[in-house]
Automatic annotation (TrEMBL):
Coiled coil: none annotated. The lineage of its organism: Bacteria, Bacillati, Actinomycetota, Actinomycetes, Pseudonocardiales. This is FAD-NAD(P)-binding. InterPro entries: FAD/NAD-bd_sf (IPR036188), HpyO/CreE_NAD-binding (IPR038732), L-asp_N-monooxygenase_NS-form (IPR052189). Residues 9-180 form the FAD-dependent urate hydroxylase HpyO/Asp monooxygenase CreE-like FAD/NAD(P)-binding domain.
Length: 646
């Protein structure tokens, strides 16, 4: 560091580093004649894209967002973000431009198409370089370190940024945007047992999914093998497509449906399984101009319930119980949207009128224990009077939360083949509904309008210790999974491929619900208690994204910061309940460790303050991801002004 120079260290070179450089360069005239150095650290050297969106990842991994809904810069919708740059391409614009200049048809996208993650990575890298170039043009020194930061050591009011190679740089301000990491689960039930079994017997277990090309080579798992995939989320989809299409298999268009043509290099069978036994629902095509505004599930309603029914925790924020206080509002909002979509706005008005008294009572009187569907009788009363024969046949006629959560009824038992056929029917129907979109299809409209559009209201209920300790634990362990299942799925073009693989048979989903791993002498065995499946596996893949957990993180940075009391773990403390310590960091309202205003932490490590901040930037949406960067930037300039450097 040069004398008199102010130094910013950015740890993590993912998308947030691009957004941070964008804001910094847009406001760099504030620097005046002062000198600034920006040091960016990324252990993979993927500056601007990071590991998740790396440009070098396989072509088979999709971005879970329509191309026109991905931005790179602050826009006028973002609170307090002035000045805004005029040139703000979306990922769609960037892909069109790339197609025009290269003729490469993989960039020939429509606005609503799901781009590939490597394409997003290329665009991010280009934007990052452009913003870094702008900063350099204004005399700022931008230095990139392809290194892992392992510690921050206090040094005379500044920080020594220590990296794995042992290098040290002094920083005045540190922005920690390290994103998702991987954990060492060797001491945990499940993964720990699998690792121990694999070590003992030579059975093959792959505990980490990413980077895909490192975890799964083209020969391993070997062609013709039987692979178990523990998970049915987006990570499993990445793995499944990489092991099939990534090994030369092709999807051919046959009568409007995709058909999979194997290459012979893929596994003979990929048995994918999870506790629910089903993939997340297909994400509907977005046909809305603007997000749904809550009619019942609103911040005002949450505030009223907090006052009337919250548990006093000795501060000004009585705690809510998500099941008792929030779920009934969620289901009411979903049912309202569902039937308004099916029967039109007049039916919606009738429902509002019919539930009015129950709803007001729910908000203002102490809430007794009850079913999550407790606010639905007023809805059902209206629906009973409506002409259901007018509803087009492929629509889901009745709103039923329990069926949504468990779409395949296995209560009477099912053979493997029955489950497979029923599930294939379900996948086909769900895909059709997703193509109908989030406005015309009643089921998709209700799920998308509530679990996606009203995430801000859910944050208002949950974040910063909004729930009791017990309820917060259940929210993270159960409700977030339900949310991912119903609204966090992949785009129709991706699920069309999954359907084609399942129809072909290389993807086998017949394990059914509650499938478990058992052990034979030398291999893992997948057991499906409902369908009776028992299959020996050559390889078991773990297909989950690891939650932020400094105690288990394979990188030592946060463990070291906790060890030297720079930051501590956040606790949810509720009288009469055991404290809940989910592993997130304890940060102030500006996302800084208490007592250390020169460090800002954003992303998964800061999830106690923000449940839904882990996605690519969405333009024209006052996106919280950019609002946080803007808030950090204001603090950054204030700190620099305060230093009064020459
Ligand atoms: C597998 C996966 C798929 C996803 N897909 C999507 C999607 O399709 N759409 C979407 O909107 N969101 C997706 N997300 C969410 C994702 O969190 C955000 O899109 C985005 O990547 C967040 O950006 P970030 O910069 O905060 O973190 P990241 O993208 O995680 O980047 C952080 C970077 O910091 C590096 N790093 C970490 N620790 C250190 C250290 N100590 N020293 C140096 N470098 C370090 C990491 O290697 C990484 O390159 C996905 C997440 C995962 C895990």
């Amino acid at each position: 560091m040069t004398a008199g120079e102010f130094c910013l260290a950015i740890v993590g070179g993912g998308p947030r580093s691009t957004y941070a450089l964008e804001r910094l360069s847009a406001t760099i005239d504030r620097l005046g004649g002062r000198r600034l150095a920006v040091h960016v650290y990324d252990d993979g050297g993927d500056f601007g894209a990071g590991q998740v969106h790396s440009a070098s990842q396989p072509f088979t991994s999709y971005l879970n967002r329509a191309a026109h809904q991905v931005g790179f810069a602050a826009d006028p919708s973002v609170t307090d973000a002035e000045p805004i740059r005029d040139d703000r391409p979306t990922l769609y614009d960037w892909c069109r431009e790339r197609f025009a200049t290269t003729g490469d048809t993989t960039f020939d996208l429509e606005p609503a198409d799901a781009p590939k993650r490597h394409q997003h990575g290329q665009a991010l890298r280009e934007m990052f370089d452009a913003y870094a170039g702008e900063l350099r043009g204004k005399g700022v020194s931008v230095v990139l370190h392809a290194e892992e930061v392992t510690d921050l050591v206090p040094a005379d009011g500044r920080w020594e940024v220590v990296s794995a190679s042992g290098s040290h740089h002094t920083a005045d301000q540190v922005l920690l945007i390290t994103g998702h990491s991987s954990n060492d689960y060797s001491d945990e039930d499940g993964p720990g047992e699998y690792l121990a079994f694999a070590r003992r017997t030579g059975a093959v277990y792959m505990p980490s999914a990413y980077p895909l090309q490192e975890a799964l080579s083209l020969e391993d798992p070997r062609p013709g093998s039987t692979v178990g995939c523990a998970g049915l989320g987006l990570t499993a989809i990445d793995q499944i497509l990489y092991l099939t299409e990534g090994r030369g298999g092709q999807f051919l268009l046959d009568d409007d449906r995709l058909r999979y043509q194997a290459s012979g290099s893929e596994p003979a069978m990929i048995l994918a399984f999870s506790p629910s036994g089903v993939f997340p629902y297909t994400r509907p095509i977005n046909r809305k101009d603007r997000p749904h505004q809550g009619r019942f599930l609103t911040k005002t309603a949450i505030d009223k319930i907090r006052k009337s029914s919250g548990t006093d925790a000795g501060d000004d924020r009585p705690r809510l119980d998500f099941d008792a206080h929030v779920m009934p509002l969620i289901l009411l909002e979903m049912a309202y949207l569902h039937y308004r979509t099916l029967f039109g706005p007049v039916a919606g008005d009738l429902i509002v009128e019919s539930v009015h008294e129950d709803y007001e009572r729910f908000l203002t009187l102490p809430i007794e224990p009850g079913e999550v569907e407790r606010l639905l009788p007023g809805v059902e009363a209206v629906v009973a009077t409506l002409p259901k024969q007018l509803v087009p046949e492929p629509m889901l006629k009745r709103f039923d939360w329990r069926t949504i959560l468990a779409p395949i009824d296995t209560s009477a038992g099912m053979t493997r083949s029955e489950f497979r056929l029923t599930y294939l029917d379900f996948l086909r129907r769900d895909l059709d509904w997703a193509v109908q979109g989030n406005v015309a299809n009643s089921f998709k409209a209700s799920v998308d309008g509530v679990w996606r559009d009203l995430r801000g209201v859910l944050s208002h209920a949950v974040d910063g210790g909004g729930l009791t300790a017990d309820s917060h634990r259940r929210f993270l362990e159960y409700h977030r999974r339900c949310q991912n299942k119903v609204s966090g799925g992949a785009a129709p073009e991706v699920m069309a491929k999954i359907l084609a693989l399942a129809e072909h048979g290389v993807l086998d989903l017949s394990a059914g619900p509650r499938a478990k791993i058992a052990f034979s002498d030398r291999s893992f065995v997948l057991h499906g208690p409902v369908t009776g499946l028992n299959a020996e596996l050559d390889v078991l893949l773990d297909a989950r994204v690891h939650a932020f957990d400094p105690a288990r993180d394979i990188r030592p940075l946060y463990r070291n910061l906790i060890g030297r009391d720079v930051v501590r773990l956040w606790r949810n403390t509720t009288p009469g309940q055991a404290d809940f310590v989910p592993g997130f960091l304890d940060l102030d309202e500006r996302s800084r460790p208490v007592g250390h205003g020169s460090i800002t932490v954003l992303g998964p490590a800061a999830a106690a303050r923000g449940t839904y901040q882990f996605s690519a930037l969405r333009p024209d949406n006052n996106d919280v991801v950019m609002r946080e960067i803007v808030a950090w930037l204001h603090g950054f300039w204030a700190a620099l002004d305060h230093r009064r450097l020459p």
